[in-house]
Input
Amino acid sequence: MIEITNLTKQYKNGFKANKEISLNISPGEIFGLLGPNGAGKTTLVNQLIGLLKPTSGSIVINGVDVVADPASSRRLCSLQPQSQIPIDGLTPKEAIELSGRIRGMDKKTARHRTDELIQRLQLEQWAQLRGENLSGGVRRLTAFCMTCVAPAKVLVLDEPTNDVDPERRRLLWKEVKAIANGGCTIILVTHNVLEAERSTDRLGILHNGRLIRQGTPGSFRDKEEDNMILELTLEPGKNPAGIISQESNALRLGQRILCPVKIGEVIERVSWANDLKKNRLIEEFSINPPSLEEAYLRIVGIGGSNNAQEN
Ligand SMILES: Nc1ncnc2c1ncn2[C@@H]1O[C@H](COP(=O)(O)OP(=O)(O)OP(=O)(O)O)[C@@H](O)[C@H]1O
Ligand SMILES: [Mg+2]
Output
């Protein structure tokens, strides 16, 4: 459905935000795009939907060369942008229905689908409030509904769950899956690795403008298959230097320390963690199979600090 080949985007100031990206996405697939701030995710999706012109490379959607014909990519794709859509003066119900009408739905169908989305995302209590009086999360959900009221062949969601509460996130993912089951191809840009792991069929990691890895969520984890992860949560205010210095391969994430542990060493390491807990150096610990989050952090570094992939 989407074929991206050697895509490079250099901004006017000379900065290359996308470098030689090649990627194919199948119809009905939910493809997640992960990467630290500034990795080039929004730049990539803005080229897909024809808002930005690539410097070089090609993008073909549903057999159409959309670089040559950007108007067709706006027809083939619907985008929920990362920035909030202004809907002042309209209620969510009006804004969603209007989006459906703009996408060519007849009045009755647009109204029916609008009511369905409002009910599925539990937005009833805000459906008749004017846009300027809505909370950030409800605005974001309204933008999501506006994007998928009449989904095009490709749905591009750039950080759709920012500011959204956990229960409505779950409802949003359920709706995304329903739309993909209807044959729509979905590109999801996110920072939330746990959501990406649960909600996507395949993932790509962008880092410093390059697509450095792609595969199913499981394929990222399999690389670490002889390890388990011992997760320690530090007592507030405790200095972790002693713990971290013993753990050459440990990752520190705020109060959490993730230590890879060989399967044969699990019992010994659990006993060590138990001693740390007794001595009140840590609040708690757990032992888990490697997660996508751990694999992702090892690839890009904390906050995207790994520069090994940069040219
Ligand atoms: N118009 C522009 N001119 C110059 N540089 C730009 C422009 N727009 C974006 N950039 C730079 O390109 C890089 C990639 O930006 P982009 O918005 O694509 O990142 P992102 O992966 O979406 O980040 P985030 O997760 O923060 O949304 C950043 O370093 C950004 O500062
Ligand atoms: Mg972005």
